[in-house]
Amino acid sequence: MRMLKSFFAPAVVAAFVAVSALPAQAEQISLDALSDYLNDMVTVQANFTQISDDGSVQTGKLFIKRPGMMRFEYNPPEKALVLTFNNSVAIFDGRSNQPPEVYPLKRTPLSIILDKNVNLGQANMVVGHDYDGTATVVTAQDPENPDVGSIQLKFTADPVELRQWVVNDNTGSQTTVILGDTKSGMPLRNRIFDIDRERRGAN
Prior knowledge:
It contains four helices and twelve strands, in the order αβαββββββαβββββα. The protein has 203 residues and is mostly beta strands. 30% of the residues are buried.
């Protein structure tokens, strides 16, 4: 579970593996357009591939319901589940009899995209806004909690879509999350994100 702890641990710093290319400002998506996209993103379902710093690969399914809710279901042989709900993040290790590890959502950089109102244009939030030749890459931090770290988000255009992020923890280890087969606008029940319900066995 070291990889999962690294992914959501406090004091997370996020970064992308940049694609080598010259900047092309004409292709760069504006911060206002990206804020509008994230605020309009109410529900999302996607497959994901997660690549850890040691080269190990995990796959699964991601569910997002904004504001504040996210669910990572890891495919076998991983026995893991990550939930965000009621301003908390919980990591369930199916191979352990111990209770889930729980962190405040605000102590993770993913809180930026799960906030009720995303405003990438506010002072001191965005510390990097670039185009890598194929996509717009935005590096953002919570202005009220800059010590928590930052998150770099990679967006493609026409239409705007979030494609991946890479998380680096404070030890320098790196976890890449690539999204695929993304769908939006479907109904998602709050109970699939409910940490207490999962603790009770989701009955």
